[in-house]
Amino acid sequence: MAAPRTILLVDDADILAAMRTVLERRGFRVLTATDGNAGLAAAEREGPDLVVVDMMMPKKSGFLVLEKLKTRGEGPPVIMITANEGSRHRAYAEALGADDYLRKPFAMDKLLECIDRLCPLPPQDEEPAGNERDT
User: CA-to-CA distance for 100 and 66, rounded, in angstroms?
Assistant: First the structure.
């Protein structure tokens, strides 16, 4: 069986709890951080398959996290989330290499669509090898 895909979530604790629950139920391994510095450290240590980062984070903004992740080679796909409404923020995130951008509040289904596109789970085996039945 393939290893689960790892998603790093960087946001405030209340939002992290909701996203973590949904993603773990879907089969993802979920790492969390509540500030930009901790998020970057976790990304370096764990090498996640995808990062979801809030634009407004303590200690290091989501923009700086995104920039650091994308300037270290290709880096993982990054979804930027924010409550800010300005179109210039989106343009800046895209210029830094954000793979998607969601404005809060968003439907969890919208986040899951982005994740499925950028970091699909491997297909699950229907039946383990060696358990074939004669018919």
Answer: 12
As a three-state string, the secondary structure of 78-127 is: EEEEECCCCHHHHHHHHHHCCCEEEECCCCHHHHHHHHHHHCCCCCCCCC
Count CA atoms closer than 13 A to 129's CA, side-chain side: 1
Q: For residue 4, is it left (φ>0), alpha (ψ between -120 and 50) or beta?
A: beta
Dist CA 7 CA 22 (whole Å): 12
CA atoms in the 13 A half-sphere facing the CB of 33:
27
pLDDT over 90 (residue 99): yes
């998020």: which residue's tokens? 39
Q: What is the pLDDT of residues 44-57, one digit of tens each?
A: 999 999 999 999 98
How far apart CA 1 and CA 55 sit, in angstroms, is: 35
Contact status, residue 43 vs residue 7, Cβ threshold 8 Å: no
Query: DSSP label at 3?
Result: P
77: helix, coil or strand? coil
- d(CA 127, CA 118) in angstroms, rounded, equals 27
Element (H, E) at 30: strand 29-33
